[in-house]
Amino acid sequence: MARIPLGIKNASWVTERWGTDVPVNGFIRELYMNSLQAGATKIDWDKDDASYQLEGKVKLSIIDNGNGMTGEELENLLINLGAGTRQLGLDENFGIGAKISLMPQNPQGIIYLSRKNNINSMVRINRQDGQYGLEEMVTSDGKYVNHITVADDVMPSLIMKSGHGTAVILLGEDEEHNTLLPPEGVLGGQTNWLIKELNARIFKVPSEIDLRVNQYQNVGSQTEFPHWVKIKGNGDFLKKNSTSKGLIETSNGDIHWFIIDKKQQAQKNTGRYITAAHTGVLYENEIYDLRTRDKAQRLLNRFGITLGYKSIAIYVEPNEKLKARPNSVRTKLEVSGRDFPWDIFAEEFRKNMPDAITKLESDIIKKSSRASSNVLLGRLKERYSFFRIPHYRPHDEGTYKTDITPNEYGGQSKESGNKSTDASDENDEHKASGESGGNQGSIWEIFESEQSKSPAKRVRSLQVPRVTWVSPEEGDVLEDKAAQYNPPLIRANEDFRIFKCTESEMKKKYSKTPISSIVGDIVRDHYEAVIQEVILRAEMLRGSKNWSNQSIDRMTNEDALTGAVLPVLDLIDSIEKDIENRIKEAKKAA
Known about the structure:
five-stranded mixed sheet, 18 helices, alpha+beta, 4 domains, Ribosomal Protein S5, domain 2, about 30% helix, nine-stranded mixed sheet, single chain, Heat Shock Protein 90
């Protein structure tokens, strides 16, 4: 039975509309994949020689030695929005990707040169009067056609040497547009952006593929000093330049981790690879959802990496069980239309934290420790032990004697078959394993009692969190925030304005005292104590009937901790009193 195939009405409008959803660097991935799908083994990114030699214009050209196309095949590819060399599918290249990503950025036009069956064909697609279409060209006998045959000397040398292949020349927004320069917002500088973009998108270039970029020291109107740079993918850099690396297998896929050599992070490779802390998802050797700087740090924190993140790269590679697929613009993976489930991998990673990363974090803590007084910390521990609320669970082999009746802070045990009526924590993402609250029914909070014969085990014993001081100027992302809490560590911002102002005033006031050199440490001690106490008091409420884990997390987030250190009247009095006492002790010791 005959049927009418689906078509796309107002294709130019659709192209513009869809093009707004595609990142400006999206065409790089699409053209690379098109070359692979055409069977290419050599792919070069270079300036177009014909445009440069004949017109003095600098235009980017992507050349491969793939199968090539006839003039009719080129027409069909470009005039039909969904045409491509492969059938559309959820896990295939969508066919329309290159056109959607290229056309809106190149209204002046895109030239396709292709050689197949010893014939060289050329077409040009551009936008006129708001419509995209094939430009009509005149043959030697005066006919108007949509594709023409061109001489061998017009074709790139790679195609002529191979006997087949295709070149795509990007003309940009107008005749003067230098398309060898990076679009706004892409990675890298003017001369190395293509290198970095390709490496940032490809984890590993197949060994049989020779992918190159011709890098120029000057990419202005006069291109100078070209040299070819081979692209191998960011995974190749990490493999060769990591002090430690490994793989954690999970039921939903693999987690690749790397500790990047800090010496390499400072070398020229920073212009060609992603060398700083980053995360990504691997799918068919491509990197999706690449995160750097603050986005990477927040995600690495969820993986349990709180201090050593500056040197860490983590890639998650889901297996088929998870059924993760790229979104329509090929920027990230989704599962059934939802965001990628990072947390299931983060939980597995925390449970199986590599020894090398644990040691890295421990070494950083040791280096950041200051030779300051422990008086405030000892005082805090004393008061904490006085007012803390212990947490117990009934257990036949428990060593504590308790009142068996759950108190007002807790719920009921799951084993009892009864559930708490408070379900506010059902969707809490950050609940720690083994620390469920009473409102979940998995922990009993009951009074310790010498008179009772009911045995129990203590299930939670809070520790005073340790503080390390960091600086945004050194690459940390705590911009204008006082501190960040990632259990069991607090990262305090040494450049936070309140801290610096207080420290400056105290140093000025006590500059001529015998303890002037440690005034800054004393100020930090007091601010540490404020932050630690806020966290301790908040954590005591965790698991209580009327407090969800999300509520506790909000009480200890960056904004809350910043708010906690803003009041200064009582704190200044306390700091000055402490300094005065230290001065007296110093004079006595003298």
